[in-house]
Write a structure and sequence with these properties.
- It is globular, with a radius of gyration of 27 Å.
- The chain starts with 6 loop residues before the first helix and ends in a 5-residue tail after the last helix.
- It is an all-alpha fold.
- The chain has two domains: 76 residues, no CATH class; 247 residues, Orthogonal Bundle (MetI-like fold), CATH 1.10.3720.
- Helix 8 crosses helix 10.
- The longest helix has 38 residues.
- The protein has 16 helices and no strands.
- 72% of the residues lie in helices and 0% in strands.
- Keywords: Cell membrane, Membrane, Transmembrane, Transmembrane helix, Transport.
- This is ABC transporter permease.
- GO terms for molecular function: dipeptide transmembrane transporter activity.
- It holds the Pfam family BPD_transp_1.
Length: 361
Amino acid sequence: MAFEPDTASIATASGKPKAFGKNPGVRLLLGLAGFIVTVAFTFLGLLAITFFIGRVVPIDPVLAVVGDRAPRAVYEAARLQMGLDQPLVVQFFHYVANVLTGDLGTSVSTGKLVADDLKRVFPATLEMATLGIIIGVLLGVPMGVYAASRQGSAVDQIIRVVGLLGYAIPAFWLGLVGLALFYARLKWVGGPGRLDIFYDGLVPPVTGLLLIDSLIAGETEIFFNAIWHLALPASVLGFFSLAYIARMTRSFMLDQLAQEYVTTARVKGVSERLVIWRHAFRPILVPLITVIGLSYAGLLEGSVMIETIFSWPGIGNYLTTALLNADMNAVLGATLVIGAVFIGINKISDVLYRVLDPRAR
């Protein structure tokens, strides 16, 4: 009879076996690799969508460069120089290679590299959207929690109406009304633009965020002037964010307040404040972070109308100008940056989801 080694004894002779998949370091590397692959494929899909949409729109990028009165020979020479005579697949691979090296082309509108233009305009959008989401979170979360804890009350009805108005009111209308009332009539806030014209160019750009750069330069007067101009557009964005966050927070809280453990805590005599904020609010933090992340990404990509109304020199205004001038390099570059930011915020939300909820690991 052939000798068969006792593999179980051998495996356990020096202790418990360590499975490959249970090694924390291996799990971390696999998770990181999966994260990188997911982001890479998502970004590649974004590149493909932006590229092919840019090729099917009824805008001739060659005419945008040479003009509609250029001779045929000049038109063909520009078309060859731009590589538009090659098959779409070849053009796409060239486009991907250029993007990966940071080359988004040259803007017809400004005559500068699109990448440099986006570095200049994106901080303005980031500043406005960040203040807007801060307003939305600081007001929307408490409003949603209070509405859920007072379900059916007059305050609950008012908060629900505010949430509905955030979905129903057009952004351009609210922006125009805000300018007419708070700027033109009451003089409570600054008008269009990021600064009063006599302050323009006095603060050297370091981060591109005017509030931070003015403090770095020690220009407190410019700092408060920037807040004066930022208050209204950020508040308009904050209102729409507030409406969405308050509505979702209320929905999450109502679901938690109906759970048995909340009823048990109340029966045991736990104070209502602790029941709401410790027992009911903590479990909704995970989905609430996802809601806030999506709302923030929506503000970054959906500020086109607000920036146009307030003459805000951000990426939304830049994108609008590029569309009007048939500047496809600028349009594709701005769309790509907005999409990349959206992907990044979603991935950060996923990471926070796993950090706060061990069940998702």
